[in-house]
Design goal:
11 helices, 0% strand
């Protein structure tokens, strides 16, 4: 089968099929129906959708140019951008994304003294443990982020090293 035949035979059907999957998974995500089931599917298959979309554009290039010449393409494109801009401008505001990520971020800003009760240890135990692991921790008043910066490590790694399961005789940081 020649590439041109493939494009004409499968470009639009693949676009329609993957768009349907993307639409169904997008609606499911919008209504928070089984997000673990639909999240990866929606992301990956939406990316895969770009290939048949490109085939579809190539197949329909002349009609698309006709829309552009008649300026009937401009209004839908402008409306699409106009509707998308508020979403882009408000990204990161409102609900703020994944609550687990927010919690980790807050915990990395906290001092060892503040984290100790949550991590079922004394501040001094956390300080000694991090020092044994090779982290540059000088005081129980130091934040996890400050210790990470001084140690040239990721703050999440320092926080992870302090978890109760990691403090129970785990190997030292290399």
């Amino acid at each position: 089968m020649r590439p041109n035949d493939f494009m004409h035979r499968y470009g639009t059907p693949l676009t329609a099929g993957l768009f349907t999957v993307s639409a169904v998974s997008g609606v499911a995500l919008f209504f928070h129906w089984a997000p673990r089931t639909f999240h990866a599917m929606h992301e990956w298959l939406s990316v895969v959708l770009l290939a048949p979309f490109a085939l579809h554009l190539l197949k329909n290039w002349k009609p698309l140019l006709a829309y552009a010449k008649r300026k009937t393409l401009l209004i839908p494109l402008a409306l699409s951008v106009l509707v998308a801009v508020p979403f882009a401008l408000t990204a990161g505001k409102g609900r703020g994304g994944n609550p687990a990520t927010q919690a980790v971020t807050l915990m990395t800003q906290a001092s060892l003294a503040d984290l100790a009760p949550v991590l079922q240890a004394t501040p001094e135990e956390l300080l000694r443990h991090l020092q044994r692991q090779g982290y540059k921790a000088g005081s129980t008043r130091d934040s996890v982020a400050a210790i990470a910066t001084a140690s040239q490590a990721r703050a999440s790694d320092v926080l992870y090293a302090m978890l109760p399961s990691r403090r129970a005789g785990k190997p030292e940081r290399g």
